[in-house]
C-alpha cells in the first residue's frame, strides 16, 4: 500500500479544493482531510489544524513543484 503524506495545510477547505484541482489537472491524485463536519462548520478548522492536502509519498515533490508555481 502506498504511503500518504500531508504536503500542505490550508486555513479553509476552499483553498485546499483549489490546490487539489490544480494537482488533478496535472494527473496527481490528492485528497483533503478536514474536520469541518463536511464543510458545514468551517470554523472547526481553526481548532483542528486546518484542511490538509494529502498525496502519495512518491508524488510529493512533483505536487509541491506545481503548488509553488
Radius of gyration from the CA trace? 12 Å
Class based on secondary structure composition and strand pairing = alpha+beta
State the low-pLDDT regions, or none.
none
Q: What proportion of the residues is helical, as a percent range?
A: 25-40%
Sketch the topology as an H/E string, one letter per element: EHEHEH
Distance between the termini: 30 Å
Write down how many β-strands occur, each being a DSSP E stretch of 2 or more residues. 3
CATH architecture: 2-Layer Sandwich
Strand content: 15-25%
Our count of domains comes out at: 1
CATH fold field value? Alpha-Beta Plaits
Q: Main sheet, how many strands, which sense, barrel?
A: 3 strands, antiparallel
| CATH-level-4 superfamily name | Hypothetical protein rpa1041
Strand order of the largest sheet: 1-3-2
Number of helices, where a helix is a run of at least 4 consecutive DSSP H or I residues: 3
Amino acid at each position: 500500500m502506498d504511503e500518504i503524506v500531508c504536503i500542505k495545510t490550508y486555513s479553509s477547505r476552499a483553498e485546499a479544493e483549489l490546490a487539489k484541482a490544480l494537482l488533478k489537472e496535472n494527473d496527481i491524485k490528492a485528497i483533503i482531510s478536514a474536520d469541518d463536519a463536511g464543510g458545514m462548520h468551517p470554523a472547526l478548522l481553526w481548532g483542528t489544524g486546518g484542511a490538509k492536502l494529502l498525496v502519495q509519498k512518491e508524488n510529493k515533490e512533483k505536487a509541491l513543484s506545481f503548488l509553488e508555481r
